[in-house]
Amino acid sequence: QSWSRGMSYCLHSESHLDTGPIYVRENGKLHMVNQGAGGVQNVTPKTRPFSLFSRSFSVELCMNREDDRARRQRTDHFIFTYTKEGNLRYSAKSLFSLVLGYISDNVDHIDSLIGFPEQIGEKLFSAAEARQKFTEPVTGLRALQKFTEAYGSLVLCSLCLRNRYLVISEKLEEIKSFRELTCLDLSCCKLGDEHELLEHLTKEALSSVKRLLLKDNALSDSGLRRMTAPVRVLKKGLENLLVLDLSCNPKITDVGIGYLLSFKKLNCLDISGTGLKDVDAVIKRLQMQIGLVHSKVPLKEFDHSNCKTEGWAEQTVLQWEQAVMEAMKPQDNLRSRVAALHFYGKTHRIEEVVNRTLVEPETKTSGNLQFYKENVENCHLPLKKEFAGSHELKNNKKRALAEQERERTSKQKHLCLTVEDWDLLNTY
């Protein structure tokens, strides 16, 4: 009776819905309940179409559903390749590459990389560089500082910013974050004496610079005084400088050359195109006090062929330059305006702005003032044979040594500082 009550309830309740056939097993036999008759019949089950879902039901396949912004930032977790037969084959990325990609996407949130293995640090830097994380205004600087603090010269050991004055103005803080640079080329950037980057050269972070090229930067004697003040008094700053290029700076006079005498380790010097008044006196002074010999032919150290950007951040500097060029593209519209002015028979000064290019100044051969130190392995000497058998040079060496002994005994030359020098040193 209980079975019949439950079945009748099932049949009569919600009878308006099509629930499909109902099967009941009783006494080892399968019975189908007939809803219309309200009883049980021993019949053979009929195959009739049966839908599990209603007609209005829809299915949508969703994998790793994220918002569009996050989907653009993340990379695919599969690697697609083709077989020899031309069939598409995919394989999952390794866990290391997935974690590396995740960290590089959030590289600006890293607290510190000090003590982290260099091999993994280089891969992490490359992954972040491929995502152009270092080109972002605020987060890029913060991320770059984490790498430079931990790896120093591995991030960048040589930086060439020749003719890239726009990159310097746009990425000055990023450039200042590089540490342990050994070569820095700032030629033809028109920085001047008061530029922040020149002041940064005297900091301890760039005491490792051995090759400094400042050709055509509108420098004067005051700029050299500021740049050499830590070396002259505190024995800090650019005390390890070996090669210095100050050519094409006409405001540098004999007074400014006197500040360079504090660079005792200097092997090569170029002061061509400067505003020297007594050239012969300067030549003798450089030779007697720091042992630099005037070269009759141009030196290879100043042909700018060996100066390159080297390190992990080599592509990063190129990305900065490309970003600056992209930002300058709207000025191309000026050409159409110039064309319109020419069409109507008018001229305008705007043509000078469009066609203006930075032309690197060239020093005359007759005004070549390049110096080198003899018997130095790292300095490319022009012609050693011309100077090897010269008795005059030997005598000059003796006089130079004697002059150095006199300077050591003379305390006034070391302690004679002007008020401007003390004011300058107080700023460090």
UniProtKB/TrEMBL annotation:
Pfam families: LRR_6 (PF13516)
Record keywords: Leucine-rich repeat, Repeat
Family: Belongs to the LRRC42 family.
Protein name per the record: Leucine-rich repeat-containing protein 42
Biological classification of the source: Eukaryota, Metazoa, Chordata, Craniata, Vertebrata
